[in-house]
Every structure is written in C-alpha cells, then in structure tokens.
Design a protein that fits this description.
By secondary structure, this protein is mainly α. It has helices at residues 3-16, 33-43, 94-106, 112-122, and strands at residues 22-25, 77-78, 84-87.
C-alpha cells in the first residue's frame, strides 16, 4: 500500500467515525513471509539462499502462524468503501476483569504451566502451548 493510499483510507475512515469503532482496512491477499524475504533479497541485488541464507526457526511459544484481525464476536460492518470495515469492541464486565487481574497478581509465583492456564482463562484466545503439549 502506498502512502497516498494509506492516507486516503485513514481520511475516509474518519468520515465513518461515530465513536468507539475499530476500523479494519482490507489490504488485499496475505503475503507469505518467505516470499517477502526472497523478494527483498532479490530487490537488494542478491540471490536468496546463495548470497543470503533464509533460516526457518519455527514458532516460539505464544507465536501464531496468522493474525486474526478481529474475533468473530466483534463482527465486521461494511462501509461504502469496499476497503474499509468497521468492527465494534466486545462488551465485557470490567469489575470481573479487575477481579481476575487481582487473582493473577496473587498467583504470580505459580509454576509456568499453571500461570499460563490462568492467563488463558482470562484471555481465551491466548494459546499457551504449541501442538497441545505442556
């Protein structure tokens, strides 16, 4: 996306703003990081895997293969511009959330696996384990 395209989308999103919305810009099809790395190496005048090796390190704990822009509960509302969508924050019980944070603080010295399980209870989308193992 060029700078003028980005500025235009941000300006247009401002027109739709009423307060509290989350604006999601459609940036097209995802690009594989491998393709991006190879293209950047070529654009720099080098040959991938010859001049500059590409090393695959695998996922680290907590990393994801893809990013979810919004959770299903937030939904996406179309706008007149096909590149701009509006999501709405999920309503939650703030007092209950603060209670959970106090519990987390009380148990901060727990074993690593136990604390990860507790964080997962507070943030269900957090995936503390890769491949289901502990």
């Amino acid at each position: 996306m060029t700078i003028p395209e980005a500025v235009s989308l941000v300006m247009q999103a401002g027109v739709y703003a009423k307060g509290g919305e989350i604006f999601v810009l459609d940036m097209g099809e995802p690009v594989k990081i491998d393709d991006l790395a190879r293209n950047l190496i070529k654009l720099s005048g080098y040959t991938p895997d010859v001049d500059i090796p590409i090393v695959y390190t695998g996922l680290r704990p907590g990393e994801k293969l893809y990013e979810e822009l919004l959770m299903n509960e937030e939904g996406l509302q179309k706008t007149k511009n096909n590149s701009i969508y509006i999501g709405h924050p999920i309503q939650f019980d703030e007092m209950f959330f603060f209670k959970q944070l106090r519990e987390l603080r009380l148990h901060a010295n727990m074993e690593e696996g136990d604390i990860k399980d507790l964080v997962h209870k507070i943030v269900p989308t957090y995936q503390p384990y890769i491949d289901g193992g502990k």
